[in-house]
Amino acid sequence: MPASLSCQSVISVRNIVGTSIYNNSGTRTRYVTAACCKNRAARIRVGKGDRPLTYEQALHPHHIGHRKGWLSQHTSNLQGEGGASDRTVEEVFVRCFLFGTFHNCLANEIVIKRRGNMLAVCTLMLQKLPPQKLYFLIGYTETLLSHFYKCPVKLEVQTLEDKAVYKYL
Amino acid sequence: MATRTLKTSILSLGRIHCHIYGVNVRNPLNRATYATALSINTSSQNKGFPDRGNRGPFNRRSRREAGDPRTDRMPVEQDWTAVYPTATPFRQGSVPLPVRMGFPVKKGVPPEKKGNLELIKIPNFLHLTPLAIKKHCEALKPFCTEWPSALDTGAKCDEHFPVKVESKDYVSAGTSLRNPSARIVHLRLKLSCLNLDDHARKKMVKLVGERYCKDTDTLAITTDSCPVRQQNYDYAMYLLTVLYHESWKMEAWESEKTVADMEEYSWEDSPSQKNIMSTLVRMQVEGEGEAVREELLGRPEVQEYRDSVTRLKNEGESESSMHQYRDAVKKLLNL
Question: Phi and psi dihedrals of B131, rounded to 5?
Answer without folding.
Answer: -65, -40
